[in-house]
Design brief:
Elements (H helix, E strand, L loop, with lengths): L1 H33 L9 E4 L2 E3 L8 E3 L5 E4 L7 H10 L7 E5 L5 H4 L2 H8 L2 E5 H8 L11 H9 L9 E3 L4 E4 L2 E7 L8 E9 L2 E8 L19 H14 L4 E4 L2 H4 L1 H7 L13 H23 L3
Parallel strand pairs: 4-5, 5-6, 6-7, 11-12
Antiparallel strand pairs: 1-2, 2-3, 3-4, 8-9, 9-10, 10-11
Helix pairs in contact: 7-10
Length: about 300
Amino acid sequence: MLRHLTKRRWLMVLLGLAAALAVFLGVKWWDATQHGGQQYAEPFRIAGNFYYVGANDVTAFLLTGPEGHVLIDGGYPGTPPLIMASIAKLGFDIRDVRVLVNSEPHFDHAGGLAALQDASGAELWVSEASADAIASGGADDASATFLPTKVIAWLVRYPAPRVDHRFKDGDTIRLGPLRLTAHITPGHTRGCTSWSFTVRDGNRDLHVVSACSFTLPAGSSLVEPQRWPGIRADFERSFRVLRSLPADIWVTSHAREFGRWRKFSQRAQAKDPVDPFIDREGYLRYIDSAEARFRRRLAEQEGRP
């Protein structure tokens, strides 16, 4: 009898430890899906009416105009307070944001759109290939063609925003004098959208490209069965499209990729604080590096040396 009670006690202890571990991991997982470790980053003017208002790595950009502003990307579900604090610190009002646009439907870039939409009253424009995923809070992701990725997409759902407009490749969104052209550059997701626009800085016009990610998520296949039909051709076209765009200034949905901190730090020593961001060579290196990774992954999956 004593032995039986001892075994039961140990079993209860083990179950308690397992439950505590599950709770701990659950809290960590929830925090990762809500915040992703993002912290407040000092907002700043990049050039003209174009500003950085994102977190330390997951980006957001504000393009201001006399008839309202455009906000690019919404971060994680937990990062809108950081974005709104940055907008306010720069002297702007979130309620003057009239248009929300997005790069892709994953929770680290679309997770905060609903909160930003509620705070601003802005209309959300989304590519046709991303619209259903974003409208479902990430659960209906057409890029997730295999069961494991569908399950992950369902588990990391985010508050679903209202999709007001769907656009196609090459469409231009207008807000007063502001013009943003959408370039569908699939690869990371089917509806991955890069944006091009011009900002007026002093007496010069500067071409800006906000490039969507080229990262191929782990486990994704470029060979049969492909992650989605035609993904290889999509990547090839995306490289060509981005190389063809005039880009004085380039940014991405992750700050480390375009060197946010380095360029921000260099502003203080530069004769013109915009100069560190004028970087077409860096833009082309970014595309070249992405294409090299793509070709290495393709060779590995095809079994070539």
